[in-house]
User: Fold these one by one.
Assistant:
Number 1:
Amino acid sequence: METLKRIFRDHPAPASDAGDEAYELVRATAECAAACTACADACLAEAAVLQLRDCIRSCLDCADLCAVTGRLLARPGEQDADTLRAQLSACETACRACATLCAHHDGMAHCIACAEACRRCADACRGMREAIVS
Amino acid sequence: METLKRIFRDHPAPASDAGDEAYELVRATAECAAACTACADACLAEAAVLQLRDCIRSCLDCADLCAVTGRLLARPGEQDADTLRAQLSACETACRACATLCAHHDGMAHCIACAEACRRCADACRGMREAIVS
Amino acid sequence: METLKRIFRDHPAPASDAGDEAYELVRATAECAAACTACADACLAEAAVLQLRDCIRSCLDCADLCAVTGRLLARPGEQDADTLRAQLSACETACRACATLCAHHDGMAHCIACAEACRRCADACRGMREAIVS
Amino acid sequence: METLKRIFRDHPAPASDAGDEAYELVRATAECAAACTACADACLAEAAVLQLRDCIRSCLDCADLCAVTGRLLARPGEQDADTLRAQLSACETACRACATLCAHHDGMAHCIACAEACRRCADACRGMREAIVS
């Protein structure tokens, strides 16, 4: 996402917190959204789909929240700090829940990979949330 | 959204809170997402766009959060209560911020209409959040 | 979606085709997106989920395309006619495919309801596409 | 997006075209969606916003279509080929239109960067569309 980095750098009025941390969070949400979307699709194609239903549902929710959180962060201008903090909290919650469910299916490589993406995204959300000042 | 009501009624394993309140919230988020998207577009076309920049930004964020919150609610099966509560809180926060900004532009009918949709959606989010039990 | 209608009416520079037809299409896409999201969730909770996998996948795709098509239409200013036409064509294609799959499961009321929403949205997309002049 | 690559590799029933090309396209859409979202935000913050209105509108549409196209591709199971082809066509059309508008503002680095992301995504969409067999 090198073009995004260049756009962030060239933004005429970036928020104080629109730096490398925001850029890394956009990357983490994009990766997690794609991983959750693909993992839900893979779970749906498994013979054991009956046992994977809560994982599919959790992946769908997590993909949606990661995608929208990345969008907010990809707008580097002045933001409503309360909204951003609340959304980062919701995204972290969804990522942790999905990571826990996916980690239960440790016989499936796609669930393991998805759980890793979720944990990284959750950590990035928490870091960003704690960094928002006002 | 009569078809949605029928699908909710026919769901084989709905969550305890997937009733009329969830249905009304999906409607409120759909209306608010569309109103915010259209209001941002209208503000952008105004001669006074320079004074409407924070309103546009706020409408874009609010439209995104309403759309994703509606999606979570449109899945009436068992949900992660913590994720749902956090997302409802984020959506309410965005709606209240957007309603406040839009209400400042009381010379513009599209901002007034948008502020009304935001307030209704915020109230619906709070009602739903308080109704989630565990 | 009465607020959307008011915003459309108050838009300072609406496209020639941003009238009642666009408004009705935004409504149809919102209904179809919600119906497909809820139908996928209902199918996932059915005991016969193994037989419903293609329906779930189709509903997820259709929900995504309806949501994004509604967003384009909810921006009533001047649009890129080629983009709009192509997107309306993609949305119609997804809706027809999903309607066909859902209609196969005529023992399930949620699939029947979803198929109806898909057919209405497909027809609305085609009508709008044919109405775009340039 | 290394986790996505691992999930694609571990999918139990991937479509014939769900290989490296699909993976690269998910990456290209994610980059273009983020670039367009950030470029619209940067244009909105420019003093010359009045001259950038068509660019903002185009970036918003393009971001939406790239995001949804990436979602379809991130589901590597069997797809409806007609829907996928039509959506790739719509996404390519939006990307080319946005690249053209952004390239006009060659005094702004964010528009130049965004135009590059759009062109890469358009080319990736076309390549994928031509590769879909049935």
Number 2:
Amino acid sequence: MIKVGETASLTKKFSESDVRTFADISGDHNPIHIDPEFAASTRFERPIVHGMLTAGMISAVLGMQLPGPGCIYLKQELNFRAPVYFGDTITAKVIVIKTREDKPIITLETSCTNQDGTTVIDGEAILMVPK
Amino acid sequence: MIKVGETASLTKKFSESDVRTFADISGDHNPIHIDPEFAASTRFERPIVHGMLTAGMISAVLGMQLPGPGCIYLKQELNFRAPVYFGDTITAKVIVIKTREDKPIITLETSCTNQDGTTVIDGEAILMVPK
């Protein structure tokens, strides 16, 4: 039985190679991720990691740890708060904030922070939990 | 000037190799994506593509086409409506549903559908648009 307050996390460092690979498999070749010259002309100044690649770590924590394999992802809200740069070490954390008595559905607060403690993504997830 | 009703889309087929690569770069080795035997024991019956990899196509359309390079991703809501299987051909589509006069911020309806026309993801995105 999953309870409010349960938490899990995962930490990973993103490389330029991860970003180039994600561009290839997702089709997202936005120059902000792969063209240093273009990136230099933006407020971010340097290429940034795709938000959906960083968000993949939230999915990883949910699917592998809490609630773990067999859960069904119903909804994810992602607020992109700050850029993730190549070489940043990101920690994805999830906390159960709501459970239901009538249905096997839980809500979690989900966030990613960088090595400086800056929140880069936050939001909530809703999942169906295996019995 | 971006107007309500403007639309853009992108189509891509996902392979087993894409999914295994995404598992490696995101850290999401949930067996539902990579273990056919485990997947057979679930309601999905076969391995499914990571939701965040499919959602990467939405980011691709936004970042490459509408509003295009230089836009800043503020928020994405993802409702996972149906599974995506290896070999499925997914079309991501975005439609501008709201613009603001006071700030360079737009809201888009975002969705991914499979080759049968089934909606696999829907939701909304909010972006800041380059001037």
